[in-house]
Write a structure and sequence with these properties.
Number of strands of chain B: 19
Shape of chain B: globular
Largest sheet of chain A: 7 strands, antiparallel
Oligomer: heterodimer
Radius of gyration of chain B: 28 Å
CATH superfamily of one domain in chain A: Mog1/PsbP, alpha/beta/alpha sandwich
Helix content of chain B: 25-40%
Largest sheet of chain B: 10 strands, antiparallel
Helix content of chain A: 10-25%
């Protein structure tokens, strides 16, 4: 049992101990410092989820007061409508070895799977109205692979017109520059119900070259439902 | 000379007058913070008054804000140092052991609040029934995510925080050949379709050319979100990929291809990816029979953690959070006709400190009581004998 009445050495302030006190204060200041820098994560691809839409922020509110997404939920795009269910749907015929699945991504009507090795993807997107117009969309595609935009004259020169049972389908074929070339073959057609359809084959130049003739036969087979 | 300065600094920190002044400042801060919540919202007022070292005010006509009042963090820090100094000033004897414990417990309490204020991270996880989510996201902070989606199995996510975008300039993205040139950053903006005849957009690629951006004042109310937006130009190997508009208000991500790599640009709430994933198996919203009065909200989640070879269920419900891997998951909200569960996620490395403090203070008080009682009984005994 310790002797309660025996005094222990008294604490005396010294420069060292004062410094320790101030130092602990400075250290606690540093605790709150967060450096701003670019972070890197390697994550598995998000599995497509049928019901998922814009992800809400949902600041905490009492339970029972929320029955839907809050107004102005981030990720909502007020002026970009969801993929429409077109009234006059397009149909097409797939070559041997190709398959199709509905959706498969944001704003996507359908995704084709091609029987070729390598990085390539074939998609169908349908948007209401002119969807920004042909020139804007073609330049957006060109910008995606680092190519400069066209003017109207350049657009006309680059265009190939396919006569299909659904009407005139404009086809464009671009290849990027650089050591690893990317290529895009895109078809653009407006249907009588006022929608605009985009059928695109994109990927590395070599596999796109192999798949192009099959893709062109898909474009040529386009007809109204 | 140094000893004199040390003695003066020590005298300042251990003075009772300092304690009175700091407590008065703290009371003023509580009143000011409470009043500020009306305009700034809870989080805005707490950040401006209680979790900052200085309270700043922007006067019209001045290009920079001026410091107006010491902030809660500074007052709290000085109070903690004052308490430490007073604690060390207590006579070092076994008779004062109880007082030492009580004061030390209070120091731990202050330290715990300081750690929480400076290091606590509040995020949330929105998850629908059947969905698997492996990240939490911030309530207010945003990021520009540059995502390399080339690999069929993995995504390489490069996250540029909004605070870095706000500084402008060029941001090299490590691990990629891309440098992002920030042309303009808006902490909050309103987006709309660009009308014919209006000035052209700064954007030259993606959806930006057809979108009009108007800067808006920042909002801080609890149910409002700032639509952070920016015009950025990705440059790689000396080649520009145009100027893109990125915004929290744009739903669909935009992409470009460089040297066979497909990069997606997406402005979104800042994410922290986790080494594990939650799958929401069931969300229950129970009411009392015959009424609409909520009785229970619960989320049954499947936790999958490959690094620990773990796959198990956990039930999260009101007042019963899940503590996992340094984070605490609370059942916070719900939506989409009871198919969406929102978990509030708190990461506070100092969460145990208040409990430790309570135990120390309790033991200290008991010890002090026992010591004083023993002394009192001994005096009585001595008096009887004397």
């Amino acid at each position: 049992m310790p002797n309660l009445s025996a005094p222990l050495p008294r604490f005396r302030p010294t420069p060292l101990k004062t410094s320790l006190l101030i130092g602990s204060g400075l250290l606690s200041l540093a605790l709150g410092c967060r450096s701003d820098e670019v972070s890197h994560f390697r994550v598995p691809k998000e599995a497509p989820f049928a019901q998922s839409g814009p992800r809400p922020a949902m600041p905490p509110m009492p339970m029972g007061e929320r029955t839907g997404e809050p107004a102005g939920a981030p990720g909502a795009t007020p002026d970009m409508p969801p993929p429409p269910a077109p009234r006059a749907s397009l149909k097409w015929s797939l070559p041997r070895g190709w398959s199709e699945q509905p959706g498969g991504g944001t704003m996507r009507f359908a995704t084709f799977k091609a029987p070729f090795e390598g990085k390539l993807e074939a998609t169908v997107v349908v948007l209401p109205g002119q969807a920004g117009g042909e020139l804007a969309n073609v330049n957006r595609w060109r910008g995606q692979i680092g190519l400069p935009g066209y003017d109207e004259a350049g657009l006309a020169k680059a265009r190939t017109v396919l006569r299909t049972k659904a009407g005139a389908l404009n086809v464009y074929d671009f290849t990027s520059e650089g050591q690893v070339k990317s290529r895009m073959v895109a078809g653009y057609i407006s249907t009588p119900d006022g929608n605009t359809w985009f059928l695109k084959l994109t990927g590395d130049a070599a596999p796109v070259a192999k798949a192009k003739s099959d893709f062109m036969s898909i474009l040529g087979s386009v007809r109204l439902d | 000379m140094i000893k004199t300065i040390a003695a003066r600094v020590w005298a300042f920190f251990r003075s009772f007058q300092l304690t009175i002044v700091l407590l008065a400042l703290l009371m003023c801060l509580v009143v000011l913070c409470t009043l500020a919540q009306v305009e700034m919202g809870t989080q805005g007022a707490v950040n401006a008054y209680m979790r900052s070292f200085v309270v700043w005010h922007q006067f019209s006509g001045l290009p920079f804000p001026l410091p107006m009042f010491p902030g809660g963090a500074l007052v709290g820090l000085l109070l903690t140092l004052n308490l430490i100094a007073k604690t060390l000033d207590i006579k070092l004897s076994w008779g004062k052991a109880g007082m030492w414990l009580v004061h030390f417990g209070l120091v731990v309490l202050f330290a715990g609040e300081f750690v929480a204020g400076m290091m606590q991270v509040d995020t949330n996880m929105s998850i629908e029934v059947g969905q698997t989510v492996n990240f939490v996201q911030s309530y207010k902070n945003t990021e520009l995510a540059l995502i390399d989606v080339t690999d069929p199995t993995w995504d390489e996510v490069y996250s540029v925080p909004d605070t870095l975008l706000a500084r402008g300039g060029s941001i090299a993205v490590p691990g990629t050949p891309i440098t992002l040139k920030v042309k303009r950053y808006f902490p909050n903006a309103e987006l709309s379709n660009r009308a014919e005849g209006t000035p052209p957009s700064m954007a030259t690629a993606g959806i930006g050319p057809s979108v009009s951006v108007v800067e808006q004042p920042l909002v801080s109310a609890d149910n409002e979100m700032n639509q952070a937006s920016a015009f950025v130009e990705p440059v790689a190997a000396g080649h520009s990929y145009g100027v893109w508009l990125v915004s929290v208000g744009l739903g669909a991500p935009q992409s470009f291809i460089h040297e066979g790599h497909n990069y997606v640009l997406s402005m979104r709430l800042r994410r922290q990816y986790l080494p594990y994933a939650f799958t929401l198996k069931q969300f229950r919203h129970d009411v009392y029979p015959g009424t609409d009065i909520p009785k229970n909200f619960s989320s049954l989640v499947q936790i999958t953690n490959p690094s620990r070879h773990e796959s198990r269920e956990a039930l999260i419900y009101m007042n019963q959070p899940l503590r996992y891997e340094g984070k605490t998951f609370y059942q916070a909200s719900f939506g989409k006709n009871d198919t969406l569960s929102v978990l509030s996620v708190v990461e506070n490395p100092g969460w145990l400190l208040p409990y430790v403090s309570c135990v120390l203070v309790a033991i200290g008080l008991l010890a002090h009581f026992a010591i004083v009682l023993r002394r009192s009984l001994k005096r009585r005994q001595d008096k009887k004998e004397g």
